[in-house]
Amino acid sequence: MLIAKRPQRTLARAAEVRGVGFFHGADVTMRFLPADPDTGVRFIRTDLPDRPSVAARVSQVIPTQRRTAVQDGPAVVELIEHVMAALAGLQIDNCLIEIDAPECPGCDGSSRVFVETLDAAGVVDQDRPRQTLTIERSFTVREGDAVLAAHPNATDGLTLSYHLDYGQDSPIGNQSFLLSLSPESFRSEVAASRTFLLEHEAKSLRAAGIGLRATEKDVLLFGPDGVVGNTLRFPDECARHKVLDMIGDLALLGMDLHGFVVAHRSGHHANASLVRKLLQSIEKEKEKEADPWAPPLPLRSDGTIDIQGILEILPHRYPMLLLDRVLELQAGRRVVGLKNVSFNEPFFQGHWPGRPIMPGVLIIEAMAQAAGILIASSVNRSGRAAVIASIDDVKLRRPVVPGDQLRIEIVAHKIKTTSASVTGVAKVGDALAAQAKIRFVMIDAPAA
Questions:
Q1: Catalytic site residue from 264, 316, 351, 413
Q2: What is the pLDDT of residues 161-184, one digit of tens each?
Q3: In a 3-state reduction of DSSP, which class is residue 75?
Q4: The domain 307-444: what is its CATH number?
Q5: pLDDT tens digits, 74-102
Q6: Quick one: pLDDT band at residue 417, thresholds 50, 70, 90?
Q7: Which of 438, 379, 424, 431 is closest to 401 using CA atoms?
Q8: 163, 268, 269, 316: which is the annotated catalytic residue?
Q9: Any idea which of 197-201, 377-381, 432-436 has the lowest mean pLDDT?
């Protein structure tokens, strides 16, 4: 489900980082620049003719070993995961990055230098919402012994877990790390964790001409007896760095992610594969919900829907039709409806003689009918009906009596082809009469 949880953010001013590329050994200067809303993150190769650029999106990822790289024509930028992790961890959504080499500077093998630089530049909110993908079902990527899975989360936000296990003979012992991601937790628990490799792997890379300028002080190098020429910042620093890499690679989704991502021995390739699966799920959902044959809603010229239009949309009839007019409609987002409560309502005969009060359950039913209009604005209503599946957090605040005009306001949480959930309130004047959260399932039914 796609929702908007917060405003987009960019840098308050430009910032610069200088360093050496770990793989190619070139001197690198990176300039981080503010960018307009919806720009995303884009790398600009200032060392190439015409300054070609490449977006930091999974569609631009190219196969590389031990790092994440993106390419668009002549513009290739490698080792982007630590930069992307810093931007995502600090919730910086729009940024232009000028770079004069084919890879990002390695710095100390972590995101710490980037975080310090970006923090010094400052961050500002923008007047556009940031899209968030909330995971509603599980997705799994398997690559040999490696497993990466994304599940729905019990709370808002992104939680990441990594279990590192290279076997009994590895100098790197088994480690696990769990993180609830926020800018604060990223700074304190993840940003300083450094990239790592085994001593014999480093020798093989150097023999191939890779990493010639990187030293034991730049990365965590593990020999048979443990770390060589360096000290750990955290006992589980390797697992923490794997989570850092996950954050950077998941940022290639191009939106925030809410869910619980669990990894076992996975790496950059699996991370990118998961992002592709998530994007494919969004496209499939859009295809299901995009129906060119859905009949238009019977809106009047002023944007309202009268009783005749309501009868076209809802299957309810006397005495159970409890909505008289739709005053406002923002398709798929919000609806405001009206119920005129008359003494002639049939339920007043028994509820109660001498003291007529509208039953609370019928107030909730009126809210559900208004929600039905909202659902019909997003999905094809032909041959389908929204049926209440659950009602939660119900509160009845004041009696509704003959002569009252019930104003019903419904806000959508999610509307899909198979289900929907909303929050609603009913008011008499400015006084709250009732409120509830209502969940629906879609069933086959005759058209209204």
A1: 351
A2: 999 998 888 999 999 999 999 999
A3: strand
A4: 3.10.129.10
A5: 999 999 999 999 999 999 999 999 999 99
A6: confident
A7: 431
A8: 268
A9: 377-381
**Separation CA 54–CA 45 (nearest Å):** 8
Q: At what angle do helices 81-89 and 112-121 cross, to 10 degrees?
A: 40
Strand ranges, E, within 268-383: 325-330, 334-340
Q: Quick one: 2-289 is in which CATH superfamily?
A: lpxc deacetylase, domain 1 (3.30.230.20)
Is 351 part of the annotated catalytic residue set?
A: yes
DSSP string, 344-368: T-GGGGTS-TTS----HHHHHHHHH
CA dist., res. 158 & res. 332, Å (int): 25
Region label for 321, one of left (φ > 0), alpha (ψ between -120 and 50) or beta (otherwise): beta
Active site residue 268: yes
Q: What is the pTM of this model?
A: 0.68
Residues 428-444: tens digit of each pLDDT: 999 999 999 999 998 87
Rounded to 5°, angle at Cα 21 from 186 and 122: 40
The pair of three-digit structure tokens given for residue 410, joined into one six-digit string: 């419904």
Q: Any idea where the domains of the chain sit in the sequence?
A: 2-289, 307-444
Annotated binding residues for Zn(2+), written as ranges, equal 82, 241, 245
